Automatic annotation (TrEMBL):
SUPFAM superfamilies: YerB-like. It comes from Rossellomorea marisflavi. This is Lipoprotein YerB. Residues 1-19 form the signal peptide. Residues 19-53 are annotated as: Disordered. Keywords: Lipoprotein, Signal. It comes from the Bacteria. Residues 48-187, 213-320 form the DUF3048 domain.
């Protein structure tokens, strides 16, 4: 894994260093408040990125996005406020992309649901979008536990198939069709999610200019490389930069949270139970800096904690990588301090 990691890092790393940005809205990390709570009304902040936006966009939308090599490059990921990367069956990961501050024109390829993705979407009171489901996820969705649109019911209407790709890697949905489906079913899209907490305080810890997360299959290894000029991490899959299929905009991340959670295979198809309730070890990576923290489930949201207190995110986009507790963080995550 180390040889592959170094080859990827050398081929794509342009400049790695610790950010020296000074805080523009200093707060005490232990008592940070959401910067999106603006009592003056002078400007609006996104509840999920903490960044200034022209106007509020209402309810968050959570979309299951395919990460099979035949589904790359995907559409919409660069505009997601939060992305969870989690194993489905085998060593294959899928994404749960949560959108609120931006509304990409087209999103996909859309893939089938699993129960643990649904529970994470509920943590943001999101309208949940998927195409297909596992038996457990089907029961949850058809039981009305979460507002949702599923391609099983709307294939060829709200969900469109791209002729350039083969099923199951070719299902897409536009935000125009998401709104249409929500309106038809009477789903309210006006209420924004509860604010996350943000702080501009510089990160402190070990330098981590490039970070690799291994899922045991090189096709799904993800590498995050700190771009000092941008002050953000770029993401790569199997050595290829993650960009939008249409716009070619890269995925850029201010907050990288890598957590380990208990995984258990529960059926002959390889489906999993993932424990998102017990908390555990994690790495929080910001500004080219890595620190060892813990994670907790706070109302359905996976958040970093240290010394029993929540750690605010930096304003910007967040990527949360979930790995099994075996092999765990020390074996699945490798990093280079810099050059």
């Amino acid at each position: 894994m180390l040889v592959r990691f170094m080859a990827i890092a050398i081929s794509v790393l342009t400049l790695v260093a610790c950010s020296s940005n000074q805080p523009t809205n200093p707060t005490d990390n232990e008592d940070a408040v959401p910067v999106s709570e603006d009592k003056t009304g002078a400007e609006s902040h996104s509840p999920l990125t903490g960044e200034v936006q022209d106007e509020g966009n209402g309810r968050s939308i959570a979309v299951m996005i395919n990460n099979h090599p035949k589904a790359r490059p995907q559409s919409g990921l660069s505009q997601a406020d939060i992305v969870y990367e989690i194993l489905a069956e085998g060593n294959i990961t899928r994404f749960l992309a949560i959108f609120q501050s931006e509304r990409p024109e087209n999103v996909g390829p859309v893939r089938s649901a699993r129960d643990y993705y649904i529970s994470l979407a509920k943590g943001y009171d999101s309208l949940f979008i998927a195409h297909g489901y596992s038996p457990d996820a089907k029961k949850i969705l058809q039981g009305g536990a979460v507002d949702n649109l599923n391609g099983i019911s709307y294939d060829g209407t709200l969900f469109k198939r791209a002729s350039s790709r083969k099923a199951p890697h070719n299902s897409y949905i536009t935000f125009e069709n998401i709104k249409k489906g929500a309106d038809d079913l009477g789903y309210d899209l006006s209420a924004p999610p509860k604010n996350l907490a943000f702080s501009d305080d510089p990160a402190k810890g070990k330098v981590a200019g490039s970070v690799m997360v291994s899922y045991q299959d090189p096709s799904f290894d993800s590498t995050f490389i700190y771009n000092r000029d941008e002050g953000k991490y770029e993401r790569y899959s199997a050595g290829d930069q993650t960009v939008d299929d249409g716009t070619k905009d890269p995925v850029l991340i201010e907050n990288l949270l890598i957590i380990q959670a208990r995984h258990e295979v529960v059926d002959t198809s390889g489906r999993r139970m993932i424990d998102f309730e017990s908390g555990g070890k994690a790495y929080l990576i910001q500004d080219g800096i890595r620190r060892d923290v813990n994670w907790k489930n706070d109302g359905g949201r996976i958040l970093p904690y240290q010394d029993g207190k929540p750690i605010p995110f930096h304003p910007g986009h967040t990527w949360i990588s979930v790995i099994p507790d075996s092999p765990g963080l020390s074996e699945a995550v490798s990093y280079e301090e810099g050059r």
